[in-house]
Amino acid sequence: VQLQESGPGLVKPSQTLSLTCTVSGGSVTGTYNAYMWIRQPPGKGPEWMGAIAYSGSTYYSPSLKSRTSISRDTSKNQFTLQLMSVIPEDTAVYYCSGDLVNWGKGTQVTVSS
Predict the structure, then answer these.
(1) Chain centroid to CA 29
(2) Cβ atoms of 70 and 50 closer than 8 Å
(3) Pairing relation of β-strands 107-111 and 10-11?
(4) What percent of the chain is predicted at pLDDT more than 70?
(5) pLDDT in the model for residue 106
(6) Beta carbons within 10 angstroms of residue 66's beta carbon
(7) What value does the mean pLDDT of the chain take?
(8) What are residue 3's DSSP bridge partners?
């Protein structure tokens, strides 16, 4: 199973960041108990952002819950992260993962005007 992140590399402050993770060789409604998003800001440790379970239930980090939405498109075998009202501190490498045992390569996102 392979996971691949895609999305814009540069986002302006106050805009919404949208990232997509495409799952190949597996299913977003199975294979793993949950698919999740994790990010790592420069010089800091990884931060778990949220997850969508095989059932479709979603879970979010309390610190990001008000700005985060995770959804999936079963027809495309993809799941998506939306992070609203971004600030420069949201600059990070964003990863998608299945059960934290299988990770995409990550995608750099910079928040800057």
Answers:
(1) 16
(2) yes
(3) parallel
(4) 100
(5) 98
(6) 9
(7) 97
(8) 23
Q: State the pLDDT at residue 58.
A: 98
User: What is the distance between the alpha carbons of residues 100 and 32, in angstroms, rounded to a whole number?
Assistant: 9
Query: Which region, left, alpha or beta, applies to residue 25 given φ > 0 means left and ψ of -120 to 50 means alpha?
Result: left
Instruction: Return the higher-pLDDT residue of 93 and 30.
Output: 93
Check if the beta carbon of residue 9 is closer than 8 Å to that of residue 59.
no
The H or E element spanning position 94 is strand 92-98
Give the 3-state secondary structure of residue 88.
helix
14-53 pLDDT, tens per residue? Answer: 999 999 999 999 999 989 999 999 999 999 999 999 999 9
Tell me the residue type at 93.
V
Residue 91 Ramachandran class (φ > 0 left, ψ -120 to 50 alpha, else beta): beta
User: Which phi-psi region, left, alpha or beta, contains residue 9 (left: φ > 0; alpha: ψ -120 to 50)?
Assistant: alpha
Sign of the alpha-carbon torsion through 27, 28, 32, 35 = positive
